[in-house]
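LOG
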Amino acid sequence: MSIRVLARELYQAQQRLDALRQAVAAAPEGERRSLAAPLRAAEEEWRLLRRMLDGQKGTESPAGSGRTGPGSGGRRG
């Protein structure tokens, strides 16, 4: 998945999470219990997407940067 797609998915997950948190805060006590499972699922989805996005950002290097890194097969200098 591209960074752009992951970022969009993360944004949408954040919106769903915010809406669920507001619903839990406004709900009567009995209804809060029924919203707990969807809230946990939304939180886990958000964390998963965040980790995926962080991983994508960490693995991409700017094109043409001239840098060599671990496993690049050579030294510069």
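LOG (cont.) second protein
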Amino acid sequence: MIAPVSPLPSASLGFLIIGYLAFLTFFKPVKAFCFIFGIKLTFDAFWFIDLSPIGLEYGLLEIFFVTIVGISFFGPRISFREISWPLVGSVIYLGWVAFSPISNEQTFYIPIFVRQAGICIGLFLGIRYIKNKVQLDFLIYLLFLSTIFPVLASFLQIILSYLDITILYHKTDSVRGFRLSGFYYDPATSGMVNIISLLSNLHLIRNNLVPKKYLSYHFALIPCAYFITLAGTTRSVLFVATVIVLAYILGKSLKQNLQIIFLCAFLLLFAQPYMEKLQERNLKDLYQGKDISSLWDELPRILEDDQYRSMFTGRVSLWQNIWSMYKSASPSQKLWGTGYTYANAHSSYFFLLLGIGAGGLILYLLIHLRLLSELFSLRLSLSSKKLALLCIVSILLLGTSTTAVNYTSFQWIVYLLVGGASNLGRQETLP
């Protein structure tokens, strides 16, 4: 992977953008909100800038959080009836995250707290800024705009790789080999940006929110984003991307479906090397798990038996390590967590189990169950309901094999969309 650099022009531009947005939050918070989420996923390309030479411990992405705090404090008023139980639950969950290291006499680690605040912040901003469907659709349009440059850059990176030209970022390991990641740290993070692109783009197309003269560009970006998720060879990301595409093309305009299918099929002709990698890994996992009758029933054995350590590209070995650490913890640590953050857990659930304990993990799951229950019960348009449900399903599915959902902007954006959609439902349901 390309080593972090510290170019003064890039750092200066980053600080200029953050300063301007921070200024806007005081005087025009709604405008600041629109700017922030209209550039956020593109701005994340600044992650590589090393600020340690100027004495700063954190990077531009952490400093950008100042603008999120600003639009959280300022902006449209919130009435008491807009406060939802999932939001209350997320505040309790955040308190649990804060108390967990303290209960184990560990150092309170601010970056982990900030990242886990994504649920609470996203839901809160959705309630504060999304009051009607026009605002929700405009937010989705802004999010789509923020993905265009990263998607095109990643697609260009893949095309040039066929010519043995390497640009932007990539990772190499002994198990999965050479993997492209565009502007981002790893293919999983890049894949989440493409999931946001697919979700927002398909929502705009299916709800006739795209001007006719731009429709062909929107259609072209669908197979590009899907192809990038395939090239990343992260199976959970690819599965979620497939679920999103299928959810939007089933039962809709045959002409539009054929366009999407044709474009995706055309690009898949060039994806043979990546498909072979996926097939090889799938066959290896199937062979190792040939004596497993039910993954769920056999989970305790998988977490104990060394013969499964290399399954799922070595993820099982990480899960076994975490499970062993959790079992050796005291009863109090099993409940509250050890305070230890196993960043390379490759599973949100094991990451949370070890860090904030069984109690914290249960709270996390209950918040999502409550969100799902609320979305089904609220009087909400089908398009908004589908969007919010796909957001929750995406983050729960991705959490099975990656912790990136806890470390990236993906978390904020997912809960922002869910919070906004839920608020619309409450506006229409409550008298």
